[in-house]
Amino acid sequence: MPEKVLLIDDEEEFLSALSERMEIRGMNVTTASNADAAVTALDNNEFDAIILDLQMPDMNGIEMLKVIKKSHPEMQVILLTGKATLEAGIEAMKLGAMDFMEKPADIQSLTEKIKKAQAKKMLLVEKQTADKVDEILKSKGW
């Protein structure tokens, strides 16, 4: 099953080049060049992972990560940045980011992280489903 990825970055050329490289590797990629487009894509689709630029003009990656985790806590987010700082990396991980990578990201390493994100999300969704089934069984007294 191909990984479904939302790629968020304000640099159109970077979006185009990276999404093409990911699609060549069999991924189903949706792109968003600003925060509004990203939120719309997230609300209307299911994704296994989000690749998120840390530096965007309308909303930085940390703020976007907060928005994503508030509405989709199971979502696996990998932050990308050309200007990495230790503080930003630590803050991102505390907020629930799966990983933090510097641009230009090695495509093989990024692909492996996306596959891990898909597997982790599947485990979280399975656990949520099992918890709901247990809750229903307990409430019905079967």
UniProtKB/TrEMBL annotation:
GO BP term, pick one: phosphorelay signal transduction system
Domain of life of the source: Bacteria
UniProt domain Response regulatory: residue ranges: 4-118
Pfam families hit by this protein: Response_reg (PF00072)
Residues with the 4-aspartylphosphate modification: D53
Record-linked SUPFAM superfamilies: CheY-like (SSF52172)
InterPro entries: Bact_response_regulator, CheY-like_superfamily, Sig_transdc_resp-reg_receiver
ATP-binding found in the keyword field: no
Keywords assigned: Phosphoprotein, Two-component regulatory system
Name under which the protein is recorded: Response regulator
